[in-house]
Amino acid sequence: MPEADPEQTQYDALADVDTTADPEPWLAMLRGMWAGVDRGRWGEKETRYAELFRRLRLRPGGVALEVGCGAGGASRLLAQVVEGVRVVGVDPSRLAVAEAVRLTGAAGLAGRVSFEEMDGRQLAFPDASFDAVFATRVLVHAFDPEGILSEMLRVLRPAGRALLVEPDRDGILGSLPHDEVDRLYWRHRRSINPSIGRLLYSMCRRAGLDEVEVTPWFRVSTQPPSPSAAAEIRRDLAARSGDYWELVRAGLVDEIALAEHVAGIEEAARSGINLRTDLEFVVLATKPGI
């Protein structure tokens, strides 16, 4: 699996939040991804993941591992869904782990959910340490997804369950003019492995997992874009630099198309009329028993 685009257009700030000039917007995004968990107001996402976590077949006293935990929202959700389990979350970002610890303490879950700064390619746990392992929208940002999966399965106990949820950037479709700009942005500027979703099934089969179930899921949103989304592109166009301008520089989109796309965002923000989809693949599988 390629590690980066040969033209160096592939870029992903989430691959190393700690070294960004201003990490707070990225931490805010990580918090927002699971805001329903921490606010106690579950939406469609939390409800769907709650059902997935129940299918991990965890029992009271069991221990689960989340790789790439970010701000820890999914780990906290699992602890709320399955009584009596302990959850360990790991992430290579020191800042994300600190945020996860803070939010988990505020939620009163510090006794059941813990976090460690750790690279998923080198998990500092003994073999067969966990009853379940999971990662959600992590491998899309990883340079060695197969290595991470191998480590996850190493620390998973025989007959334990694994859950992977990853996007496929080609499933980003929208009603805005030149919606390919959105796809290209997420594929080339916010992903290391933009096609990872469609590859999960074969990865798990090659890894020797049993009961490999794969489910595609299209998330559909009619939420209009914010004016700030258009402002970012306008700034890139004016400065002829930044993530969106990199798409032009790399020959992936032309300047006229980018200008028409941003005009469409501004119109959708004014009218409130917009449609966008995001494709994910969900894989649940079982490690062979002894």
What does this protein structure show overall?
The protein is an alpha/beta fold and 290 residues long. It has a domain at 13-168 and 192-219 and 278-286: Vaccinia Virus protein VP39 (Rossmann fold, 3-Layer(aba) Sandwich), CATH 3.40.50.150. Helix content is 40%, strand content 22%. The protein has eleven helices and seven strands. It has helices at residues 24-33, 35-39, 44-54, 73-81, 94-106, 145-154, 180-188, 196-206, 227-239, 243-249, 255-271, and strands at 63-67, 86-91, 113-117, 130-136, 156-174, 210-221, 276-286. A seven-stranded mixed sheet has the order 3-2-1-4-5-7-6, with helices on both faces. Strand 1, helix 4 (73-81) and strand 2 (86-91) form a beta-alpha-beta unit. Helix 3 crosses helix 4 and helix 9 runs antiparallel to helix 11 (255-271). It is globular. It starts with 23 loop residues before the first helix and ends with a strand. The relative contact order is 0.14.
